[in-house]
Amino acid sequence: MPTLLDGRKISSEIKAEIKLKVEKMKAAGQRAPHLAIIIVGDDGASHTYVDGKIKACKAVGFDYTLMQFAPTISEEKLLKHVDQLNADSDIDGFIVQLPLPEHISVEKVTESISPEKDVDGFVNQNFGSITSDSPLLMPATPFGVMELLKRYEIDTKGKNCVIVGASRLVGAPLALMMSHTGHSTVTLCHKYTTDLASHTKKADILVVAVGKPNLITQDMVKEGAVVIDVGTTRVVDATKKSGFKLSGDVDFDNVSKNASFITPVPGGVGPMTIASLMINTLRAAQYNH
Ligand code: GUN
Question: Is the CB of 120 within 6 Å of ligand 1?
Answer without folding.
Answer: yes
